């Protein structure tokens, strides 16, 4: 059962230099996440380079992750498709391969109307028993899921949560005021995570957690136990690194950070390429400074 709370890494997909899945390094990273105490694993998001993965690769990643986690935490797969038919098919495959929940984006490429977007989400929800988190990111995907839209969609009992990425912190209060506990909220923007949780978000679908799982989990636990000053100290150290997540090159940035902490490689799938020149130096400098100043975590 998915609780839709806590820290849920949107994990990167590991590739070999020959552009095949690197399942050995993938397992090292997932194990590091589990050791840090994360509350779920999200596969196939933007960070997971989902748009470049084949259907068979997605199957392998789900099955491998299910085997690694051994029911310690739920495995959630992202669905980002261009057609309703393909999205329903992806949901069926996810359930078959062992995923315990879905994160669903609005239709890709086509800017659907509110009615079309609602119809799309409801059709997927009606096709599966898996619990669903709606990914609301109008900044990047140009479709906003409004509170009125959620009101109608929550008629589907398996729509349980929202990955809140509108960049508007007040939206958390609006959601809580209108829906109470009917809709769990997970922050989807690394640089707004502490503020979102203080405003009432139930958790954090995180990016830099891929390289720094212990620090990410510590911030969540400290906030939820009221130890705000200690959480702030870690968060302020973390911020230059967290800002690497709000970039078109977030995958390359975070994979460089994973290399620095020993739980990843730099390999990306073309057309993405490793960072070059001055930008590479800038990102490496941020990572190196973060590593040098890495805080000692309190006992929680």
TrEMBL record:
Pyruvate binds at residue 205. GO terms for molecular function: 4-hydroxy-tetrahydrodipicolinate synthase activity. The active site is at residues 135, 163. Keywords: Lyase. InterPro entries: Aldolase_TIM (IPR013785), DapA-like (IPR002220). It holds the Pfam family DHDPS. Belongs to the DapA family. PANTHER family: DIHYDRODIPICOLINATE SYNTHASE (PTHR12128:SF72). This is Dihydrodipicolinate synthase family protein. It comes from Costertonia aggregata. The lineage of its organism: Bacteria, Pseudomonadati, Bacteroidota, Flavobacteriia, Flavobacteriales.
């Amino acid at each position: 059962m998915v609780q839709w709370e806590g820290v849920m890494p949107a994990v990167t997909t590991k590739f070999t230099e020959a552009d095949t899945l690197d399942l050995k390094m993938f397992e090292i990273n997932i194990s590091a996440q589990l050791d840090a105490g994360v509350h779920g694993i999200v596969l196939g998001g933007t960070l997971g380079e989902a748009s470049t993965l084949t259907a068979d690769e997605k199957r392998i990643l789900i099955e491998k992750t299910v085997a690694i986690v051994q029911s310690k935490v739920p495995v959630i797969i992202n669905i980002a498709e261009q057609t309703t038919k393909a999205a329903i098919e992806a949901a069926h495959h996810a359930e078959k391969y062992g995923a315990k929940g879905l994160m669903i984006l609005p239709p890709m490429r086509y800017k659907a109307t509110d009615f079309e977007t609602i119809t799309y989400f409801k059709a997927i929800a009606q096709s599966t028993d898996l619990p669903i988190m709606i990914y609301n990111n109008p900044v990047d995907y140009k479709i906003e899921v409004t509170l009125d839209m959620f009101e109608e969609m929550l008629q589907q009992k398996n729509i349980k949560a929202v990955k809140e990425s509108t960049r508007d912190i007040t939206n958390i209060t609006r959601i809580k005021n209108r829906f109470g506990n009917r809709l769990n909220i997970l922050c989807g923007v690394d640089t707004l995570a502490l503020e979102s949780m203080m405003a009432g978000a139930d958790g954090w679908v995180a990016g830099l957690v891929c390289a720094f799982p212990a620090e990410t989990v510590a911030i969540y636990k400290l906030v939820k136990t009221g130890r705000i000053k200690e959480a702030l100290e870690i968060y302020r150290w973390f911020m230059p690194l967290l800002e690497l997540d709000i970039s078109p090159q977030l995958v390359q940035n975070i994979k460089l950070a994973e290399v620095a902490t020993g739980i990843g490689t730099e390999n990306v799938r073309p057309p993405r390429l490793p960072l070059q020149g001055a930008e590479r130096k800038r990102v490496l400098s941020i990572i190196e400074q973060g590593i040098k100043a890495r805080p000692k975590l309190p006992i929680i």
